[in-house]
Amino acid sequence: MADAIMTSDMRAGALTRPFAGLEPFVEAGPLTLREMPLGGQIDLRGDPKNAGFLEAVASVLSCALPLAPNTAAQGRDVLVLWLGPDEWLVLSAPGMETGLVGCLREAFGDRHCAVVDVTGNRTIFRLLGAGLQSRSASLVIRVRSVRADASGAFGRDPCPDR
């Protein structure tokens, strides 16, 4: 699905990647795990029963919000993912998120809703390898915290292996 939502600008790495410099991130025999360039990501919350909210969103994003669980809607320059009954993730090309946040906030006026730029809060990894799709294998990725001081130097993980 990542390829379906990525524009050529996103593939070109227009934004900084959190794990940049660790290329390839992981190599294990014929498999490689790489971080993909980041696009804009906006968390949007509001009442889907409020027609004014829905109209404001559609006027800015050029698409109606997906209202059914696990669905998406494609706008002119965005992809909107349903996250919950009153929450959506708006994906855009890099650099568009600041303008979209401003336009959404302006369109909402005094309506009770939330628009938050969460571009730096996620990253996307791509698993590559010959015959990967036909291979019957499980992949376990363990998430660990990484501590950095004010200078950006990495320190020891405060949560040792369990």
Could you give a short description of this structure?
This protein has 162 residues and is an alpha+beta fold. It has a single domain (2-134), classed as Alpha-Beta Plaits, CATH 3.30.70.1520. It contains four helices and eight strands, in the order H-H-E-E-E-H-E-E-E-H-E-E.
CATH class: Alpha Beta
Strand order of the largest sheet: 4-5-6-3-7
What is the arithmetic mean of pLDDT?
Answer: 76
Q: Helical segment tally?
A: 4
Structure description:
It is a single chain. This protein has 162 residues and is α+β, with helices and mostly antiparallel strands. The protein has a single domain (2-134), classed as Heterotetrameric sarcosine oxidase (Alpha-Beta Plaits). The protein has helices at 2-5, 8-11, 51-61, 97-108, and strands at residues 26-28, 31-36, 40-45, 72-74, 78-84, 87-92, 114-117, 124-129. The strands form two sheets. It has a five-stranded antiparallel β-sheet with strand order 4-5-6-3-7, covered by helices on one side. Strand 4 and strand 5 form a beta hairpin. Helix 3 (51-61) runs antiparallel to helix 4. The longest helix has 12 residues, at 97-108.
Task: Outline the fold blueprint.
Elements: H1 2-5, H2 8-11, E1 26-28, E2 31-36, E3 40-45, H3 51-61, E4 72-74, E5 78-84, E6 87-92, H4 97-108, E7 114-117, E8 124-129
